[in-house]
Every structure is written in structure tokens, then in C-alpha cells.
């Protein structure tokens, strides 16, 4: 066959570093025109390639012969074979091994003249080679050296595949000659490129026949199977069979039906299959797979519902192999106590009478850091006893240092304490944190001017903690006080994803297929949605994480608000206007080692 060199775009030559099998394309979606990973092996077009070289390292030269055979479904579609002038002497041992002499190569074209035809031959096919990193390494180096773009095709290595399919009892090694003898192929390798490529074709067909027993039927499964998956992954691969390719939640369960791990995906089947590939290297997941006996799928209307159901299932069952979102009830709050001289109190839950509070915080440490920021900004007392307005009590060291107005000794009246200490905190928690921000920034400036940079960094981290908590709480309150909110978002297939949210909780979800009027679906979702009663606090009916997932979905540019029972708003002078300051403070803190223990 003859091939017209295509007009391939040239690239700037770059230095080439030889890779390994792990660096080869692994079956993930690539450029247009390459076979899809879901293509069956019977329908996949393969270009089986072999190179003969001068024996050196891949440096853009050294190729002496190229042989390639294109096959599909056991049928030969084309052949490309040519000698290549490497532009350098051939070592004598290479001549003895291959029979290729210097005289044979003198009239042969150089590799830069052969590459266009070879790259065209590879187009739209899967590259197959025995010990593929070696052959691919030489070709990539040649492309880099001579200004051609390497097309990065999907690669299947018959040597790696044989290591997974054949046991040591069947073959002593995975050399091409050994495998050709084992499969009794009509073509035997001779250390000539085209002959070895034809032998590799026969070996490939023999290996594909063996893959059926391992339930490997598609290109993607074959590429992953050739990699170093564990025996547990191979043994439990059947758990991924029969799962739906829809959005939802998947649950790995043990023999006694106990949930081991809960996850979510827009495509349950594809995501679960990934746990049985070489890409999954987490030790705890390997341990989980060893204990898993089945996988349960919970189909959802769209990804938002899947994310919410995942959070609820993790909270309900606390699966041992999930690390995040397991204990949403373990949050803490800061609240202003109800007494003549209020103080900040760290509590596990809010009561119906609590009016000034901040949270929820995921950890006691983050709550204490925010409390320290408040104490730096306003003269709020830090002692815990309940103070009397009639009798005094001894002052603590903070009063002696001037960091507390000493209400314990009645140095400050109840009204003055309320104006100086309590009112700014109430305003910051409910509406405007300007007083706290100004006070903390001023303190940072004083410390920085005195070159007390570590202390300034501590105050900065406290400022960030205060802002982070107030921004989060005000965003949550804006959503959770709405009795009902209906929203819709365009789906990838042209339909609509519909959600009904009540007091910050996902009460109903549905999908309107393309061409189906979404209003009717919304009415049905609303009619069957969960009843959610109003409650107290920023997250009265759902975890903070669930409400934040809903917020993220609602705030996407392509989400449309359809109906709402009341206005959705945030304070005009709320904490949100300090978001840029918060981002800068967090970025600065991330570049500095922690200097404070709380």
C-alpha cells in the first residue's frame, strides 16, 4: 500500500524523556477520532507495531525498521513496512540479531520522511506493541526531534496484558517468542519489524480470547486490565456489573449488609468500575473492597439530589471508610448568654430563646479562634461565672492587663457594657461586622508597625475565622428562612433539572425530559415533596453541608429561580462585602506556619 504524507502541523522541537507504561494513555477520553473506551474489542481497530533499532536510548534517531499491521475483528486492513536509515552506524551485534546490514539501510528513507505516513496509518486506531513503552518512546522522541505532534493514541501493551492473563505455570516468561509458541501462532518473531508485528497480532488475538473469561470485553476494560490491579480488585470486579449509568448514590455493603462506603456520581456504573482499576490506589479503599460483597445503587433525578442523598446516608450510617460528612451533629456554636453581663459561650446546640449566635463550626478549635477574634475586637468578658449586679467578685488577670472592663467589680455599668461590648457583637452576628473588622485591622496595623509580625499574623487568622463564620452563617440564613423555593437548571440532554427547597432542605427533585413541559413536572414534584416545618437557627432542618450544596447549585449562572414564597436576600451591609478581605487573609495565612495553639 502507498500513503500520501499528510500536511501535519509542525511543533517546536522539545526535549524528550522516556516514559513508562503508567505514562501511556489509559483509556480516558482523548482527542476526537480516537476509539471510545466503551468500544468492544471486536469492533476496535488496532495498529500493531514493532520497531527495530540500533539499540540505544530514544533520542529521536536510531530506528532502523518499522513494521505495522492494521486489524479489526480478526481481519487485516492494511500493512506498513519500511527500512529506515538511522543516520548512524549499526552495531555489529544488531546486525547479527536482526540481519539488517549497513548496506541495506543506505538507500532507505530517514525517519523524518517516514513519520508522516506512519502517523496517518495510526489515525483512529489503538496502538499495540509488545513492551509498548520502548516502541512508543522511540516514536515520541522522533516526533519531538523532527517537529511533528505526537497524536497520543490509546496504547495497549501485549507484554503487560500477558502478565495479567497468563500464569507462570503456562509460560515461563512473557517474551514475544515464548507467547507465540504458547499460542501456536502462524507467524513467528524473527527480530524483523514486520514479522514481529504479525506475530504480535496473533498473540493479541490469543490474549483477547483469554480476556473473555475475565469479563473484559471493551477497550477501556482491556487497557485497565493490563495495568497493575490488585488480586482483590480483580476478584471483586463483578460487583460493578449491572449498575445503572445514571446520576445517583452507590453503597458498598459487607456480607451482613452493613454500609462500608457511600459515594455519589453522575454515572454510577462508570464510577464504581473505577474502583477496580489501577487508578485506584488508596489503601483504605483496598481494605474496603476486600470486605465488600455487593454494591447497591440509588438512582436520583439529577446530581444535586445525588449529593444530598449521599450526605444523608453518610450521616445516618457513618460508614467506616468514609472520612467526611460522617457526624454533622457534631457541630458547635458561639452564643451570647442571656444575663446582665453577657459573654460568649461555646455550646453544642441552640435553644429557641437564643438570639445572638455564630456558627455552626465544624470543630471546637475553629470556634475558639473566632471567639478570640471577637475578644480582640471588643471588651467582652471572657470569664465563665454568672455575674451579679448587686455584689462584686474578684477580678482576673485580664482586668489587670486592661483587656477586660471588669464588670465583676462593677467598674462598668450594665448599660455601658451593653453599648461597648454587647451591641457590636449583636450587630456583627445579625447584620454588619464593620466594628469587629475595623478593630481587628487596627490591631494588626499597630502590631505590624511595631514589627511584631507573628502576633499580627495571629490576629489576622482570628479575623479570617470571624469573617468566615459570619459570611457562612448569613448565606445560610438567607436560604433557610425561605419557606419554599423552586428552581430549575438545564440538563446536558436539553431537559430540566428541577428542585424544590424548603427552609434550606431539599424537599423534592425531578427531571423534565427534553420536549416535556417543565411546569407540569414542577407541580408534580411540589405536590409530592417532603413537608418541612420552620425551625430556629441558620440550619433548622438540614445539615449545614446540605444547605451549602444547595446554595452552590442555586448560585450557578445557568440555574433559574422559578418561584419563591418570600424574598431571598442578604444584609445590605452584611459580611459578604468583606469576601475579598477574607480571601486575602486566608491566602496570607496559608503561606505562614501556624503560630498559635488553641
Automatic annotation (TrEMBL):
SMART domains: EXOIII, GIYc
Domain (GIY-YIG) ranges: 245-323
Gene3D superfamilies, sorted: GIY-YIG endonuclease (3.40.1440.10), Ribonuclease H-like superfamily/Ribonuclease H (3.30.420.10)
Pfam families referenced in this protein's UniProt entry, alphabetically: GIY-YIG, RNase_T
Domain of life: Bacteria
PANTHER family given in the database record: UVRABC SYSTEM PROTEIN C (PTHR30562:SF1), UVRC/OXIDOREDUCTASE (PTHR30562)
NCBIfam families: dnaq, PRK07883.1-2, PRK07883.1-3, PRK07883.1-5
Name used for this protein in its record: DNA polymerase III subunit epsilon
Organism listed in the record: Plantactinospora endophytica
Species classification: Bacteria, Bacillati, Actinomycetota, Actinomycetes, Micromonosporales
